[in-house]
Amino acid sequence: MRILLVEDDLPLAEAVCGYLRAKSFVVDTADGLASARAALAGARYAAVLLDLHLGDGDGLGLLPMLRALPDPPLVIVLTARDQVSDRIRGLDAGADDYLVKPYDPGELLARLRAIERRRGGAGDTPVLHLGALEIDLARDLVRKAGVPVVLTAKEWSLLRVMATRPDRIHTREALQDALYGFDSETDSNTLEVFVSRLRRKLGREYIQTLRGLGYRLAYAPEDGR
């Protein structure tokens, strides 16, 4: 899951980025409206964490652009403004959630995952069952036939994107966006390497290749390839 953090408090931005990256999220940062617009023009994000009090304007000014995108990201407003009227204003403007500073990073993580599940149609059940495979999105756990499967951070990031919207075809570009930020260097076949690793750990029958289209997480014991 690739996230854009719009925050002009550098120490806070670094702390939030470090925490979320340790939880297998890919995080890009912007310190104002102008840099946020530039980031949004160059990449697709599943979520935007949006501070309101920015050096070049009110963060809510970004919401019209976000809502006009073909696949709008979820938006969590992060702000020190704690009045009820401020929350109503943010939600009415199109934000999906609102978190008041100072906040616990664990609460931010829980809210991100809750909105991610709703976005993917998983409702309140964050556990996906496919054949012998069990993927627990809330606890970052994968089991096959009851046995835990150990994944690296990148492998989990890739699996999370596909598990949040199972049976959907995920394009190569969308999966690369979920794996890498602006400051990452990648080879042309890096995505295929991680897909291959996931197949070895989960089983080839769980990740399908649709030539010319992308990849799909689905249990197909006879057709997996």
Q: How would you characterize the overall build of this protein?
A:
The protein has 225 residues and is of the alpha/beta class. Helix content is 38%, strand content 23%. β10 and β11 (147-148) form a beta hairpin.
Compute the CA-based radius of gyration.
18 Å
Structural class given helices, strands, pairing? alpha/beta
Mean pLDDT: 83
Helical segment count: 8
**Biggest sheet descriptor:** 5 strands, parallel
In spatial order, strands of the major sheet run 2-1-3-6-7
- The geometry reads as elongated
> Would you report the number of β strands?
13
Strand content: 15-25%
Low-confidence stretches: none
Labels describing this entry:
about 220 residues; alpha/beta; five-stranded parallel β-sheet; four-stranded antiparallel β-sheet; 13 strands; about 25% strand
Describe the protein's topology.
Elements: E1 2-6, H1 10-22, E2 26-30, H2 33-42, E3 47-51, E4 53-54, E5 57-58, H3 63-67, E6 74-79, H4 84-92, E7 97-100, H5 105-119, E8 127-130, E9 133-136, E10 141-144, E11 147-148, H6 153-164, H7 172-179, H8 190-202, E12 207-210, E13 214-217
Parallel strand pairs: 1-2, 1-3, 3-6, 6-7
Antiparallel strand pairs: 4-5, 8-9, 9-10, 10-11, 12-13
Short description:
By secondary structure, the chain is an alpha/beta fold. It has eight helices and 13 strands.
